[in-house]
UniProtKB/TrEMBL annotation:
Its cofactor is Mg(2+). GO terms for biological process: polyphosphate biosynthetic process. It comes from Faecalibacterium langellae. HAMAP family: Polyphosphate_kinase (MF_00347). Mg(2+) binds at R380, R410. This is Polyphosphate kinase. The lineage of its organism: Bacteria, Bacillati, Bacillota, Clostridia, Eubacteriales. Its EC number is 2.7.4.1.
């Protein structure tokens, strides 16, 4: 389906494929160290597996229902495409990506060979090597293989999701007779075999050895065709189907559905090497797949073996092939987060800062005699979670511990089922939330009772309570002792316990009723300011955007002259720079060493900035179909900190790609003489004194002037003109909070001031945008001190 040139909408699925293309591009980027490049190839492959299992599977089910049962065709609300039309558009784009992946894979093998890691080419073996590998196959692999024959007397076996198989077309004794031989290459087998020879490391894949020596299994004279193949199955289970019997425990329902998932319909067939037309035809007939769902490729069917390969490379001491070592920064040994948060709000930035202070705070709360309860929402937990251990320890110490465990966290269902059982055994109260809404919130509430009354510590984050991903994903964790926020969080937990949606809140965002509506109101405030001639702007950072209402509001804002900078890592269903519609909308995607996962929403009306962090993106599922939480950050120290983080990412010219008006992305390259700015690695410099800095937090001059190289192997990018730097400067001018803080002053009485009085560079083309005049920002004084006084007198009463 061809989209018109003036539409502002992009299809969700096609936009996701564009995101995965950006991941794939890192597999060829010479500025990325070699071992990291091959890992990006593996990430691309696993991403695509999940896309077919979830998104394509769901679309296929819908298309089948519409075709077989004559149901009304449901069309996507932005591009008006039906499920069948979306599937038709997905397949050729996926095939094109596979061709690119094959090329990058071949280049990666060449680079690995140059570094002493050579993949065995089984089609071009010397006699000596042929003898070695044949003996290896016969002694190590042949005894554990389980060949099967499919003919009139033997049924077709069930093909497991994502498992690799050898398929062989066999000649029967009687004329024109054919049968299919199948050998599972079990995921339980060792996938990669490594030998040292001639001063280099050689590696071979199990499935390729089985393919090469197939004749020793079936007989050379009987084989007509042979290939390796892999089936991807739908994994989009419908929880409502299992809810028919309400007497069954919810955990049992999910366990049964997970078993059912394994046998859902096939949605993709991968084959290598091609051609094997008759094997392909037989498989398609059995799996009920059309030829369009078959992807012939030259690279291995599953690239995850690269993880093991790079693990060996690291173990053998090849640091130059990896990103320079970078670990989360730890606070001073005597740092006490619980005590620190009584003085002021705290914002932790993962993975640059460690999650350990938060875990230490939970452990301390587990033993604090004044703590009466700990409540937490749990979505994705580590396999060995210190956070869950702290909750169980608190329950065993007599604290009331309430854990909302979302059992429907896709592909983490079994882990969450297991943890929920352990939490219950430890004495925790485990709840599961809503039937109709996933609880995707990241919310913790610690309640204390002393002679002065009740007090709270509330944590609201953008990322999961997961120690492992806290070192891989960029996220923000806001911790506060603000009594009002604590009361709001308490109300949210009370509502979750009785499956009631939260309808009222002040500082907190709570989807689905108090999330999108609040953000749309903020956008309206900025639009109104722009129409009055103020230098209004927005900076919106998240993972994805598909919500039609928000997209239309962004169009309205752009037409009103609001400068909008969006940092959207993944799905982006709105086009930037469409004449007369989104001329003032600038979109960039950052894909790099860490997975960008944080959400920051900043609104500047020409006088004040109101800034939020949240667990939810701008996908319709987040704004309307999930329970998400966020919070408005009012501490000027943290407002400045978040703003400077946004500005750093808008200056990034290492990981960034900018959207063009046709919806495609172009890599941002520094202009001649312009310094490299890495929006991820620059965070270490930005936050290096954050634990102990006594004065108001501010962007260090060193971080502004010098950014670390993206890798040890980074090459100097070729000079090229780019709009990235001017765009960042425009955004900085229209968001004065990014300027440095004054040298002194009480942090509670500090007024935000604009010290960078640059006139705004007009967006091109954007005739409706108005130039910025110097503005002094008059932010209301934070309420922390006043609220403490009021709370004190209320507790005294």
């Amino acid at each position: 389906m061809i989209m018109s040139d003036d539409t502002i909408f992009i299809n969700r699925e096609l936009s996701w494929l564009d995101f995965n293309r950006r991941v794939l591009a890192l597999g060829k980027d010479k500025n990325v160290p070699l071992a990291e490049r091959v890992k990006f190839l593996a990430i691309y492959g696993s991403n695509l597996d999940e896309f077919f299992m979830v998104r394509v599977g769901s679309l296929q089910e819908r298309a089948n229902l519409e075709q077989e049962q004559g149901k009304k065709v449901k069309r996507e609300n932005k591009t008006n495409m039906s499920a069948a039309e979306q599937l038709t558009a997905i397949m050729p784009k996926t095939a094109q990506l596979q061709e690119e992946c094959d090329k990058y894979y071949a280049k990666a093998l060449e680079a690995l060979a140059e570094c002493g890691w050579r993949k065995v080419d089984l089609d071009h073996l010397s006699k000596e090597d042929e003898h070695f590998w044949k003996k290896y196959f016969q002694t190590e692999l042949f005894p554990i293989l389980s060949p099967q024959i499919v003919d009139n007397r033997h049924p077709f076996p069930f093909l497991r999701n994502k498992e690799i198989y050898l398929g062989v077309l066999l000649k029967e004794k009687h004329p024109a007779g054919q049968s299919l031989g199948i050998i599972p290459i079990s995921s339980q087998m060792e996938r990669m075999h490594v030998v040292k020879k001639d001063g280099e490391t050689q590696f071979a894949l199990t499935e390729e050895l089985v393919l090469h020596f197939a004749a020793s299994i079936f007989g050379k004279e009987t084989i007509q065709e042979k290939c390796l193949f892999r089936v991807t199955r739908n994994a989009d289970i419908d929880v409502k189907e299992g809810m028919m019997d309400h007497d069954i425990d919810y955990r049992e329902i999910m366990t049964e559905l997970l078993k059912r998932r394994r046998k859902l319909a096939a949605v993709r067939l991968q084959i290598t090497p091609a051609p094997a037309p008759e094997v392909e035809r037989l498989l398609c007939n059995r799996l009920l797949l059309t030829h369009k769902r078959v992807f012939e490729q030259k690279s291995p069917l599953d690239l995850s073996f690269f993880y093991k390969l790079t693990g060996r490379m690291e173990a053998e001491g090849r640091p130059e092939l990896f990103y320079p070592a970078a670990r989360p920064m730890l606070p001073p040994p005597d740092y006490d987060l619980a005590a620190e948060v009584q003085k002021h709000d705290v914002l932790l930035s993962y993975p640059y800062q460690s999650i350990r202070p938060f875990i230490a705070m939970l452990k301390k709360a587990a033993h604090d005699p004044e703590v009466i309860s700990i409540k937490m929402t749990l979505y994705r937990m580590a396999r060995e979670s210190q956070i869950v251990q702290a909750l169980m320890e608190a329950a065993e110490n007599g604290k009331e511990v309430v854990a909302l465990v979302e059992l429907r966290a896709r592909f983490d269902e079994q882990n969450n089922i297991d943890w929920s059982k352990q939490l219950e055994s430890a004495g925790c109260t485990v709840i599961y939330g809503f039937d109709d809404y996933k609880v995707h919130s990241k919310l913790t509430l610690i309640t204390k009772k002393s002679k002065e009354g009740y007090s709270y510590i509330t944590q609201i984050g953008t990322g999961n309570y997961n120690e492992k991903t806290s070192e891989l994903y960029t996220d923000y964790s806001f911790i506060t002792a603000d009594h009002g926020i604590g009361e709001e969080a308490s109300n949210v937990f009370q509502n979750l316990a009785v499956q009631k949606l939260t309808e009222e809140s002040d500082r907190m965002l709570v989807a689905p009723l108090r999330f999108k509506s609040v953000l749309l109101e903020e956008m309206d405030r900025v639009i109104a300011a722009a129409r009055m001639g103020r230098p209004a702007s927005m900076i919106l950072k998240n993972n994805s955007i598909s919500d039609r209402d928000i997209i239309l509001k962004l169009q309205e804002a752009s037409c009103a002259g609001v400068r909008i900078d969006m940092i959207v890592r993944g799905i982006c269903c709105v086009r930037a720079g469409v004449p007369g519609k989104t001329e003032n909308l600038h979109i960039r995607s950052l894909v790099g060493r860490y997975l960008e996962h944080g959400r920051i929403y900043s609104f500047f009306d020409g006088a004040h900035t109101r800034i939020y962090i949240a667990s939810g993106d701008f996908l319709t599922r987040n704004t309307e179909c999930r329970v998400e939480v966020g919070v408005r950050v009012e501490d000027p120290v943290l407002v400045r900190k978040l703003t400077d983080i946004l500005q750093l990412q808008l200056r990034d010219n290492v990981n960034a790609r900018e959207m063009r008006p046709d919806g495609s992305y172009q890599k941002v390259k520094p202009a001649e003489g312009e310094a490299l700015v890495n929006g991820q690695m620059g965070m270490y410099e930005l936050l290096k004194n954050d634990w102990t800095q006594p004065e108001p937090w501010r962007l260090s001059a060193a971080a502004q002037e010098k950014q670390p190289e993206p890798s040890a192997e980074a090459e100097k990018p070729e000079p090229a003109k780019t709009e990235a730097a001017p765009a960042a400067k425009q955004a900085e001018a229209s968001h004065p909070e990014s300027a440095a803080a004054p040298e002194s002053g009480d942090r509670f009485d500090q007024l935000e001031q604009m010290v960078n009085h640059k006139k705004r560079t007009e967006p091109q083309p954007a005739p409706a945008a108005k130039p910025i005049k110097p503005v002094v920002v008059e932010t209301p004084a934070p309420r922390s001190r006043l609220k403490r006084i009021l709370d004190f007198f209320r507790l005294r009463r």
